[in-house]
Fold this protein.
Amino acid sequence: MCGIVGILGHAPATPRILESLKRLEYRGYDSAGIAVHDGGELIRRRAPGKLSALEEVLSENPLSGNTGIGHTRWATHGEPTEANAHPHMTDRVAIVHNGIIENFRPLKEELLKKGASFEGETDTEVVARLLTSYLDEGLAPKDAFQKTLSRLVGAFALCVLIKGEDDLMFGAREGSPLVVGLGEGENYLGSDAMALASLSSKLIYLEEGDWAELHHDSVQVFDAAGNAVERTVTISQVAATMVDKGNHRHFMQKEIFEQPTVVAQALGRYLDPNAGKVRMPHMPFELATVPKVTLVACGTSYYAAQVARYWIEKLARVPVEVDIASEFRYREPVYADGGLAIFISQSGETADTLAALRHAKAAGQHVAAIVNVMGSTMAREADLVLPIHAGAEIGVASTKAFTCQLSVLAALAVDLAAAKGQINEEQEAAFVQELETAPKLMAQVLHNDEAIEEIARSIAPARDVLFVGRGIHFPIAMEGALKLKEISYIHAEGYAAGELKHGPIALIDENVPVIGIAPKDDLIDKTVSNLQEIMARQGKVILLSDNAEEEAEGMFARLEMPSAGELVTPILYAIPVQLLAYYAAVEKGTDVDQPRNLAKSVTVE
Ligand code: M6R
C-alpha cells in the first residue's frame, strides 16, 4: 500500500526522501512523487511507474529545499497516472495520503459548488482542496487542518505541507498507520519504522484519531478531540542499513532460503527442548479454560490459520473457527464466553484483520496477535502478542512469514493441548522434539532446489494449474495456488483432493498440471486415488511425497520429500510450492518481488 515520508530537515530533502521511499518499495506501488518547500514555494515532481522513473524526472528537473514529503502510491481511486500520483497540491498546500476517504464524493460536490476545480480523480485531492478552502477562509493552519480532519470519513494517514510555513508539517492517522520520527533539530513522518530507518530510531506511533504538529525543534501530538497528548517514544529495532538480497536474485528467493534459519529462530523462542516443554509468553488469561478458538487472517496468513485448525482440534480438542478477515465481522460471528480470538498477520497492519481484531476485543474475547512486525497496530492492540521472529519480509509474496507463523501456531497447539490435559508430559516432549527437526528437514527440501526448478519450467507455459491435498495439506494446496497466481500470473486453484470429482475435474486435460501434495499419512491412499482419476483424464500429475513406493508410472513428475511428523509436514511442503511459484515466475520474467497490482501491507478494506 501507499508509502509516506515527510522530512522537516536541515539538509537537502529530496535524496533523503528518495532513500526512504526505496525502503518502502516492498509495500507495492505504481507511481511516486515528492514535493518540497523551496524559497517560500511548494514544488513537486511526480511520475507513474517505479521510483527509477521519478529519479529520471528529478535528474532533468531537480528539486532543492530541506523540507519535503514523498509518496509511493498504490492506486485506489483513479489509474496510476502522473495526474493521480501524490503529492496533491493546490496553490497553498501539498498532501500525501495512504488510505481511502470514503465521503470524497459529497465533499467534492460541495467544493465544486464553491468554485474549486480538480486536476485528477483521486479522493486525496479533495483533502487538499478542502484544507485550502479553510485556509482561504482565513483559518490559521492548525485550525484549518483540524477542521479538515473533522470532515473526513474513512481510513487515512496524511502528511501535509503548507506554503510559506517552512517550519511546519502536519500528520494525521485514522485507520492507516503513521509514525513520527524524532531527530536533532529535525523531525519526520513515515508510514512505518522502515520508512524512517535511516533518519531516526526514536519513534512515536500515532494512535487512532491522533494528529501531529511538527516543527524543526518540537513535536506535539493531539487526540481526535484536539487535546494535546503524550505518546510513548519507542526505540525502533529496524536496522538503518538497507535490507539487501545478498547473493540471491530476488528477495523472495532469499526469504525462501532463509526459512530453516528463521524457523529455528522462531521455535527457539517458544520451545524448551531440554525440559521437553513449550514456553509461551505470560498470558493474561487462563489457557486451560478457553472454550473455543477463533482464527482470523487474510491471504497466506489465513492459510496458516487453516492449518492450525487441524492441529488445535486434533491435539487440544478445542473447537476452532477460521475466518477470512474481510468477511468475519459481517457474518455476525457468535463468540463463546471467555473465547480466544487469534489474529494472524505478517505486517500487523492489514485493515481487515485489524478491524476483525477490534470487533473481537469489543465483544470481550481474549485477543492474541501473531505478527512479524512488532511495532504494528495489531501488536499494540492485542492482549497477547506472539511474534514470529521471521525478520523483515520484503518480497510481496509471503514465504518465511508463513512457515514461521506455522511454527508458532504448532507450539501454541501443543501448549493448549497440554493446558487442557489432552496430552501428557511425555507426549508434549515428543511434539517438542518433532518440531525441533523442522529446520534440518527444511534445509533438505531446499537442497532439491534444482529438481523443483526443472518442474517449475515445465508448468510455466500452462494456463491453469491445480494444487490438491487432503486434511492438513489442503491449506498448503491453496497456499501453493495463491503463490503461483500472485507472482507468475498463472491461473491456479487449490482443492481438497476429494472434491475434484464434484466439479473441478471437468477442467482436466493434457495441458493442466496438477500438483498433488501427498505425504505418507493416513490419507495418502485416498489422495493417490484422486491423482489416478486425474491421470486417467490425461492430467499432468506432479507428486510431492515421501512415499518412495508410490507408483510413479503415468505421473508427469515426482519430487521426493523427507518424512516428518504431523506438526512438521505442512511446514516442509510449503517450501516446494513456494519454489515452484518462484521459478515459474522467473521463467515467465515477471516482477517477482513486486508483482503487478499487489501490495505488501494492505491497509484499506
Ligand atoms: O500482513 P498480512 O499477513 O496480514 O497480509 C495478509 C495478506 O495480504 C498476505 O498474506 C498476502 O496474501 C500475500 N501477498 C501472500 O503472499
